[in-house]
Design goal:
This is YceI family protein. The protein contains 2 helices and 11 strands. The protein is mainly beta. The protein has one domain: Lipocalin, CATH 2.40.128.110. An 8-stranded antiparallel barrel has the order 1-4-5-7-8-9-10-11.
Length: about 200
């Protein structure tokens, strides 16, 4: 009886604590702590979507991104972002396709192991949004790309007690401009990018 009661109390404690943690998140950009941040690779994903033969959309994800962010909410234009994404970590849930994508016919991960985005300009577009323009280097080619970023929230991560910021971003690239032209245009040249990212504040 005591064990059943203890288990029930533990379950209730877990259920109750989840919304309490969620309530800590602050969506106000003005409340963001200025400073230097490191990308939380475990909670960051980059997704790409292409049109597949005009029949359906097909997407995959990249995990294992790393990078840094320097941010001052009072001077958003001074923000600096530098992120690298290992192309060898591509996943489409189709192992045969994953092997093809990292080959020389596509990303050529052996020769070009990572994509890198380095910001050059940040322009505020709304209360919680901004256009982040930067240089994207992929497949040995560097071209300007603009990401439309949205600030989600800032909070103390209840697991590691680290102040963390969350962002979403979207953008579009033409893959042929980076030399990734396999099956274009049957598999669309236009590739939609969707990013969810978390950044952990570094000690002052």
């Amino acid at each position: 009886m005591h064990r059943l009661l203890a288990s029930a109390l533990t379950a209730v404690s877990i259920v109750v604590s989840v919304p309490l943690f969620a309530q800590q998140a602050d969506t106000r950009p003005a409340a963001v702590q200025a400073g230097d941040y490191v990308l939380d690779s475990s909670h960051t994903l980059v997704r790409f979507t292409v049109d597949h033969f005009g029949i359906s959309e097909f997407f995959g994800t990249f995990a294992g991104a790393s990078g840094t962010l320097s941010l001052d909410p009072k001077n958003l234009a001074s923000a600096k972002l530098d992120v690298s994404v290992p192309v060898g970590r591509v996943s489409t849930t189709n192992t045969t396709l994953d092997e093809e994508l990292v080959s020389a016919d596509w990303f050529d991960a052996g020769k070009y192991p990572a994509m890198r985005f380095v910001s050059t300009k940040v322009v505020k577009t709304g209360a919680r949004t901004a256009d982040v323009t930067g240089n994207l280097t992929m497949h040995g080619v560097t071209r300007p790309v603009t990401l439309k970023a949205t600030f989600k929230a800032g909070a103390i991560n209840p697991m590691n007690k680290t102040y963390t910021l969350g962002f979403n971003a979207t953008g579009m690239v033409r893959r042929t401009e980076f030399g990734v032209s396999k099956y274009a245009p049957l598999v669309s040249d236009e590739t939609v990018i969707a990013i969810t990212a978390a950044f952990e504040k570094q000690a002052d």
